[in-house]
Amino acid sequence: MTLLLAPMEGLLDATLRDVLTRTGGIDRCVSEFIRVTNTLLPERAFVRVVPELLNGGYTRAGVPVRAQLLGSDPSCLADNAARLAGLGPHGIDLNFGCPAKTVNQSRGGAVLLDEPELVGRIVAAVRAAVPAHVPVSAKMRLGFNDDSRAEECAHAIAEAGADELVIHARTKAHGYRPPAYWERIAEVRASLPPGRRLPVIANGEIWTVADAQRCREVTGCEALMIGRGMVTDPGLALAIKGQGGVSWAQILPLLGVFWVQMSARVERRHRAGRLKQWLNYLRKRHPQAQGAFDELRLTNEAADIEAWLSVHTAAPADADPARPRASAAPAVLCQPC
Q: How far is it, in rounded angstroms, from Cα 17 to Cα 1?
């Protein structure tokens, strides 16, 4: 089974991608979105969101990363996709799923699902702008206020030449409230005409091995994308693949890795909040994380966090983002991807 790590703005960034792919089981990541408005972004804008581009497009654990773009102007997205493709990502993904109000008000993300024709033009423009060997994929929800145009949007994406489609089994109006409507993914997938079928990946409410098995049964999808479930249980991908899981003792050193890398990217006043954000997820699955959360809940001082980490964890030498280790990626690491 192919398992993808989901893009989640404000949560699943390059730091957490690095940490979670170290545990194993993830086959590919998708970055959080790079917003495209009316300008051609400099290369540093892409690298800031996807620093893995400096490592051949791989995380330190050797997991390939596909970069995601968000916007509504087909021509501008195409120009930026062409520049991004030159940096060697393992494909370019297009965001038609973000439910954030500020993003939707700027005609980005899920709001575009009310305009299937525009969705198709965006995908077609990007597909034409990047080399044929660079995969172009899309991630969509079932719709904006309802799912009445889900099939229409999926058809537009397929007909425009996308190589892959991820469907989050909820509308924007559903937000992240359970349940996920996996049966609608099956219906959308079945509706694609034979000549325009493309791999469909299911996403939404996959928290356990049983969830993953049932999602595959209901949707018929061979591949799954996991987001919050993996943040909550870093061993979930391994468990889904029948390779055990990850214990709290194994997670503790990862907290140290997370802190070192996140501290290099985040302002000092926000660092404690980011660690507590992850602990808040971890405590849903690991009772020991509740104790850690309780001990750190009232402090925002980096020194206090570091003192706690020095007692409970030991960050490995390669935690320093300035010292990338040799990638576990295949020998084509330096080739265009």
A: 19
d(CA 255, CA 258): 5
* Residues carrying an active site annotation: 98
Check if the beta carbon of residue 245 is closer than 8 Å to that of residue 239.
yes
Q: What is the pLDDT of residues 181-227, one digit of tens each?
A: 999 999 999 999 988 889 999 999 999 999 999 999 999 999 999 99
Lowest-confidence pick of 50-54, 112-116, 159-163, 321-325: 321-325
Helices (H) and strands (E) in the chain, counts: 14, 8
H or E element at residue 308: helix 302-312
End-to-end Cα, the chain, rounded Å: 22
CATH of 248-319, one of 3.40.30, 1.10.287, 1.20.225, 2.60.40: 1.20.225
Top CATH class of 2-240 equals: alpha beta
- State the DSSP H helix or E strand holding residue 266, giving kind and residue range, or none if neither: none
